[in-house]
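Progress note, project year one: complex with fe (ii) ion.
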Amino acid sequence: MAPVNELLTAQMSPLAGAATIFSLGNEHAYRRWRDAKLAAYPRAPNALTVEVEDLAAPTRAETRAVLAACRRANLCLYRARAHRGDARATRRALGAFARHFGLTRFEAQRSAAADGIVALEIAAQGGRHGYIPYTNRPIGWHTDGYYNYAGPRQMIRAMLLHCVRSASLGGDNGLIDHEIAYIRLRDENPDYVAALMHPQAMSVPASEAADGKPRAENTGPVFVVDPDTGALGMRYTARKRNIGWHADAVAAAAALERLLADEALALRVKLAPGDGVICNNVLHDRIGFEADSDRGGGRLIYRVRSYDRVGDACGAPRADEGA
Ligand SMILES: [Fe+2]
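Model obtained:
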């Protein structure tokens, strides 16, 4: 008999046996996958934490550990112990780390520098001033790029946050694997899942983005099944203002909001300098934090967003190949 871990991995792959586990109708395959997923789901962030000696060049063992965490919970918390003195070297290492795990197509954003990395810190002035990511205010549950959906192949599938400086108080992130949110909702009522898969489930009206560009209205599903891989993506914000829900999705959105309020579901972490999270754009939030303006450098997080999923294009063994 195969080792338990191997069995779990095989069963946890949405590709194992059927690409339709997330679409309603393949109840047997879904149940098998669901039970294995829940049995292996970690209760504490430590179980998903990997020490990485050199961010720019992870070892084979480190690579395997990061990919295993991402297969298990769609996210990995890493600790890079080799601190880099200057911003340029850190950014270069971070870009290399992202590409190492198959994140090659970074989101093109005006807020991003030429290397595709966005520096998230308090902006006291300029175009970003007043936009929540660039303040010390809390941010509710969301996945990245929910306002910029352009089809299942052109959505933000992965995201990386890397801490350069932490706040003296607060700034902790909450993380919830979106597959767990999916399971909870489907357990409660499969109709909720169907409603949130509707192509017009959630609309974000036209507005101006933090980079000053006008942003067109954006409509799309909340749960998205990748037509190529069968993987589940999610597009969501708990924001109340300026979000339109399809009439059939209102009850489902309320149920989702309710379940995200269950603190037992969230992994809570405070990233320290050198720490980061690499993930398949899981649900995340942030608590408010101390501005630390008198300390000469408050909280600074580098962010990378990618249209690729972790591991999809890095030659890593796939779960259904028995690795
Ligand atoms: Fe975010």
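Residues 142, 144, 284 surround fe (ii) ion (CB under 6 Å).
The chain has one domain: 49-321.
No further modelling is planned for this target in the current period.
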